Amino acid sequence: MTANLIQEQISKFEVTKLGDLTIRVPLCDEIPDIEIVEQKEIINKALATWLNIDGVAPLNFRLYGPAGVGKNTIVYHLARILQKELYIIRGGEELRPEEITCSPIATSSHTFEYIASPLFAAMLRGGICFFDELSRAPHSVLAPLASVLDDRRTLTSVNPGICLKAHPEFLFCAALNENAEESMMLPDFIDERTRPAIYVGFPSKEILEQILKNHVRNADNLWFKVFIKQFKNETISPRNAVKLLQYAYRLYCHEKNGTTNHAINDYEAAKYLDRAKKDILSANENNTDFGSKESKEEISVVSELLH
To answer: Which residues contact 178 (CB under 8 A, 6 or more apart)?
Structure first.
């Protein structure tokens, strides 16, 4: 990446002075306008965890569950409720330690800029830091979190020589998939500092139907009834359910020359859903958030045999 391109990307960051250092701090993430359906118990647990009582700092929690069940949506909703800025870090094997602290970036052959991470920004401004896919980050990358998530609430960045004390209103949460949680893939110091661990599971068919109605607003009610009937014996995540119904409905609209006024019957809707299922499953055959309970059990048995 060229120096000009780097400069262009960081030019939108806010310039902040910390002592003698000038640091560029990223702006908060845009919160998607996604309506949440029936997660009151989980929302209450999260809000209770974040209460600041008698001057004692809030706790840090993590959400875990199957892929696609709405863990991120819950965090977005919490940020809206609390009217707080949200800063997101996404875990991955390529993530480096300085990317969760503060890193120097060469903007020319002779000058450097110090770029703050989303975690740094949340601690500085008193926002929410959401570490998505926490278990996918290398353990070495997570080391700076030890002092952030305990009573010290400080972030140390060795390169610029900064020890940042968190704003009193700083909040932290994380998310990971169910298999990572059950396999205990988190290092002990992170496991202990991100509790409670709150489970987010598959919704009931009634809740799933309401989620579908929120995302496919122009479809006739018949589509939702046929969908629920057709997938009543399958475990399907809201994410893939929405994807599948949206695709089926688009196929139908396209083949009816873009009109939605054509009267559709149960058989025809089921046919479009079946066509959509084949394409969605083909593209997501390795995705664990879609499939019957029986197929998941078969995959689990095969995996154990291979290992």
So the answer is: 64, 65, 66, 199
Q: Where in the chain is the domain with CATH 3.40.50.300?
A: 3-199
pLDDT level of residue 300 (50, 70, 90 thresholds): very low
CB neighbour class for 230 (10 Å; exposed up to 12, middle 13-18, buried from 19): middle
The number of C-alpha atoms within 13 Å of 289 and in the hemisphere containing its C-beta is: 23
Look up the CATH number of domain 3-199.
3.40.50.300
Instruction: State the Cα–Cα distance between residues 47 and 53, nearest whole angstrom.
Output: 12
Q: How far apart, in Å, do the first and last CA atoms of the chain sit?
A: 41
pLDDT-based confidence at 144, cuts 50/70/90?
Answer: very high
For residue range 36-56, list pLDDT tens digits in order: 998 999 999 999 999 988 888
- pLDDT at 162 (0 to 100): 86
